[in-house]
Fold:
Amino acid sequence: MAASPLIQQLMEAFRCLPGVGNKTAQRMAYHLLERDREGGRQLSLMLQKAMDGIGRCSDCRTLCETETCSLCAGNSRDDTVLCVVENPMDVEALEQATDFRGRYFVLMGHLSPLDGIGPEELGLDGLGERFANSALQEVILATNPTVEGEATAQYISDMAREKGIRTTRIAHGVPMGGELEYIDSGTLSHAFSGRRDLT
Amino acid sequence: MAASPLIQQLMEAFRCLPGVGNKTAQRMAYHLLERDREGGRQLSLMLQKAMDGIGRCSDCRTLCETETCSLCAGNSRDDTVLCVVENPMDVEALEQATDFRGRYFVLMGHLSPLDGIGPEELGLDGLGERFANSALQEVILATNPTVEGEATAQYISDMAREKGIRTTRIAHGVPMGGELEYIDSGTLSHAFSGRRDLT
Ligand SMILES: [Zn+2]
Ligand SMILES: [Zn+2]
Structure:
């Protein structure tokens, strides 16, 4: 390695990004150093602000820097329908692909007993309280169509139906084993509108 | 966009990286926020240190955080041979691919009159002083095999030969229009050892 220690440390730091190997990290480091230091400084600042300032919405549990996210804080959404997803990116994908106007709940994962992720770790007790106290009429289960996502949907469906709330699952227009956030808008929209009652 | 303003700003900041579009920026932001905040903080710190602390070696003009880079500061290299390259990454590529033991000079670009980059902008006056005052016996021109790289090599060759210094050009084992830093080690090593006198 002919690069100076600090440049090597910068390259190493880029490796924390998904899909970034040695060669890509090298190109990123030199690109900023040679051509865009202001961009690099801005990225540094935004990383620092976001890593320290982003928490979770007290209501839907998605990632945001305020006590409540803008979607939960607004009063233009339909409180009778709640869509449960695994990740914040799924909210973005659904907002873009569908005309859903209800509320969300973001699990930040799925049930995975082998990894020590049970109902408590996913905040399902908080979700249960919402089932008990709200005007909810339908819970849409939009977890990923994986084994864990299906098990999580089933678990939450049982919780909701105990309270007499209808539960639906987005249609499997998407291949099993896939992940929601990778699916094109058309397929996702189709799957969403084709949701069916869970039995 | 359902993402919070700060998350949107972080995504936007990632766009300064080469090859990073909206979707990749989104994945990077959420990956760090959901799974690796420590990595994100470390990247922020290293970016800040590097953007502010990396200058250019007073000798070979490559990027480094010290007055003189470690390669120039060391006394194990052969002062009679100087290899001229366009970019710091080319030094790394040559150090990895060849057994070259001489010195380097890094132009940080090439002659490009239309973009206002002339001999002065590339620091060629400093290079001229080295030609006048040193024990140099050979200048290896390892600029990219592009139109601009060839013109730059020719210009520097003329400067060197005015001082009676032999100049060589790395062999064109590489396709015209290509860039040195993308070429595999084997091809680069072959081209380097097959260099010939400029006429
Ligand atoms: Zn919220
Ligand atoms: Zn140097």
Notes: The mean pLDDT of chain B is 90. Chain B has two domains: 1-38, 77-199.
